[in-house]
Every structure is written in structure tokens, then in C-alpha cells.
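Discussion board: Methods & Data

I've been asked by a reviewer to show the raw model output for two of the constructs in my manuscript, not just the figures. I'm not sure how much to include, so I'm pasting the format here to get opinions. Each protein appears as its amino acid sequence followed by a line of C-alpha cells. Is this the kind of thing reviewers expect to see in a supplement, or should I convert it first? Here is construct A:
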Amino acid sequence: LLLATFVADVLILLSLPTILTTSLNVGPPHNFSHKSTGHLSLKTVQTLLANFHNDLTQTKENKKTLTDFLDAKDYPHLSYPQRRLILSLLNFSPKVREAVLKDDLFTSFFESRCLVEWELGCSDFDEQYFLNTCKTAAYNSLLVCHSSNVLVLLVLGELVIEHMTRALPPSQLPSSPAFHSFFGRAPNLPLYVSSIIERASTNYQIIRKKARVIFEKEKTRDLKSLDGEEFLEEIEKRQQLTLDWNYTTQQLSAIFFLSYPIFLSRKLFTNDWEASAKLHLISSCLSSFLPGLPPLSVRTQPTRRNYVEMAFFLEFDVEFDSKFHHHLEDFSEKIVKCGEDEGRKLEMMKELWREVFVLRGVVFSWVDRLVGYPVGHLCLLLAILQDGRELFLIGDPEYTLYKPFSFIEMLRFVSEPQNQFDLFRVK
């Protein structure tokens, strides 16, 4: 019964169409909203089925198996929305699953009458809130693609803080300035790091409190009477918690490498990174000589890679295998080597779409331009089916929404030498 229910649920989950995929009139071309349920990737399913096979054919002493996990939840006898919630946790490592299941908020999510609204509220794209957090923003959005609700994101953020502070407690940091300053003394490093951690932890708790308020309102509201606009309002309330998590985690990225924190420069204009960067250049040059403030060279440092290792190497279980990255390594160069063979190029784009679809999103790097100067940039790439048509979606952290690409449009983008398109390899 367990295996039959599991397989049936997976098949239903993977056949669900994307929900609320719309083109919004907010200024093209980054105007594509993509909300979906069923946060289980095909790659996860492949691994889970292999694990099921191992569970059924081998005896594993003193080790929790996949069947143990599902049996403990009495999986076959749960409601379908509850089973879908449990399935979504299988995107993550046993460590994350255990932390989510033990969390005080999990019961509220598990018993919620609005699990679909929570799923839809934990999807779509979001921007970078600082000029130098595109890396964190891109990976945050990829985490959102794999999370069924904001609780999973909160647990991940808290595990990242736990890992950082366990490896090097702020009290053990040298008592030196947190960053360079021409005049005056910058904030003390241990105090600077501690204040950012405390602020992030506090903000995560505020998000939890807001979630509890929503749960209380769910108990008294007649959800069946909601019209279309009211339904969207319910989703937006939950999505705001996801946006708040993203903003807080980007703030936290200033200290992903505790010994060498970076200074985050706020992006002043939504959907206009370039205008924000130009204004920032002017203001930074003027304020660099004020006491205790960092010079321009400090303000333009990108976020560190440590977040990738912490949030993915430690917390993910089955994503990003090395075969995928080896197969598509130097993808743009391989496209160029095809020369005039347009048929082969399109076939390679189809291969890329299939791989991205299986993984439910990947991150790639490319070179943007600011006043003619090259600037490295990270974006999220999704593969979706809309009305039977295969499309790519690029989530550029400079903007708040996705930009859709056909195979031909994506081919042009990948083939452009100055873009230097490269799939980000984490292994």
C-alpha cells in the first residue's frame, strides 16, 4: 500500500500543470509570473525510486530508510494535500526533514486547510535587494522552487546560521574593524557580525509570528466562498512571507564568511539595477571619506560562495549531481562549435531544457554590462511547459519577475560570445 500510494502520488504530482503562470503588465521583458504547486523534481523522483528499490531488497541496520520515514508518517492514510507536503520534504536531506518535522510550526502547516495557497505563496521569483547579492538572490529563488512553504525556508536559514556560528563563534573573531575605512574606525568585527546574526534571527521569528496570525485566520474563514481576487489575496499574504525571508537571507549574506564580511549596497530602484548602480557610484565616491564608512572598493565586493556550500552541500540530498554538470560543461562553447548546423544547435537546446526540467531549475553565470564595463552576474534558469509549449524562464535578480525565452531566443543568448554563458557547477 505504501509503495502504490507513493508512486500514484508522484505521478499525479509530476503531471500537475503550472498554476497561475501569467504575463503581467509591469514593463517588459521581465514580466512573467510563474506560480506552481508540486515542488518535487524529476531528479528527486529518480533517486527516491532507487532508494525504494534498495529499501525493499536490502536490510539496512541502524539506518533510517525512505520507507521508514514514510511509514512513520502513516503516509498512505494522510489526505492528499498532506501527502504532497511530505513528498516535498524529500527534496532535502534527512537533517532538514527532521528539523522541519520537529518544528513547532509544522503541525500548523500539516493541519492547514490552505496548503495549496501556502504552496503557491512559496513560488515565483524575487529580486536582489542589494547591488551585490545576485548570487544569494539566485540561489534563494532556486531554494524556493524546491520548498513547499516558507517553514522549510526558515529552517534552512536557521541551519545556515547554526553552521556559521558553530564553525566560528562571533566571540572568537579578532577584535578588528569589520571593513576598511579611510577615516575613523569601522564597526568592531565581532559586534558587526553578531548584530547581523541577531537581526536575521529576529526577522525569521517575525516571519514565524506572521505565519501564526495567518493560521489563526484560516480557522475562522469560509475558504469555499472566496472569489478569484480573494484567492489571489490569500496567496499574496503568504508570498509576502517568502519575500521577507529572501530579504533577510540576503542581509545575512554579508557575513557568510565570518572573518571577512562584506558591505551590502542597497539597490534603490526596483527593476532597475543599472540606474541604482550608477547612483550608488556617485554617492559612494562622495561618502567614502566620511568617518567609519567604507570606500567604493569595499562596497562593490560580491557575496561569498560559502552560502552555496552551506545551503546546498550540507542541506540538499539529491540535487546537482556531477553527471549533469559534466554533460553540459562549457555549453556555450559547444554551441559555437556547431557552426552553421542550426539543427544540432536546436537539439542541444532541447537537451538543455530536458536537463533543467529534470532538476527543477539551475543557476547560471553570465557577463552583464554597466556603463560598458563587464560585470559578472548569476541568474536562475527554469524549464516549463505552457500550453504544450516548451519554454525557458530566466530569473534575473535585477528584476522581480521572470523573462520567457523560446528555444531560438535562448540559443541567441547562449551563443552571444560577450554573454559568456556558463552553467554554475557546484561539484
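Construct B, same format:
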Amino acid sequence: ERARGKRERARGKEKSKLKESKRKESKEREQGERARSEHKEREQGERGKERESERKKSEKERGEKARNRRERERARGESENKSEEREQEEREQEEENRRKERKERERGRERKREERERERERGERKRERVE
């Protein structure tokens, strides 16, 4: 009886040690995951800042280029009206190109639709012939 009690106590101690080690492992794992996720968030934040600064820099460069172009046009003696007219013409041309592209896409869709319809009719005629 005493020996059995001793064995059970020893087994209980082993179980509690096992539980404790498992608890420590899970705690360490959670800490590692937390550290990794925090590191990832920090890196993403840094990348976001870098992208934002790149975007601002490119916007600034575009603005400077446009300003320089306007200054060159003025230096060549072009009136402000002419450059505005040219910009308006460019916008109108871009809009016209977009309209043409839209029409072309629509024509392509229509052609595909007609082709599918012809294929379907061919299939129906073929089935009728088979019947």
C-alpha cells in the first residue's frame, strides 16, 4: 500500500512537471509569435512610410516638370491662352481616344456575341439533322 502511494505521488509529480513544461513552451511560443507580429507590423509601417514619401516625391517632381514646361512655353513667347488651348485640345483628344477605345471594345463584344449565336445555331441545325 505504501509503495503504491509512493508510485502515485511520483506519477503525480511527473504529470505536474509535464504540465508546467507544456505551459512554459506555450508561453514562449506566444511570446515569439507576438514578437514576430510586432516586428512585421513595424516593417509594414516603415514600408508604408517609404511608399508615402516616394509618392510625395514623385508628385513633387511631376509638379516641377509641369511648372518647368509652362515656364519654357512662356519663355518661348507662347501666350498663356495658347498653352491652355493646347492643354484643352490634349484633354479633348484623350477623351476622343477613350470614346474610340470604348466603341472598339463594344464592337468586339458584339462580334463575340454574334459568333456565339452563330455557333449555337450551327449546333441546333446539327442536332436537328441528327434527329
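Answer (T.O., handling editor elsewhere):
This is acceptable in a supplement if you add a one-line summary per construct. For B, something like: The mean pLDDT is 90.
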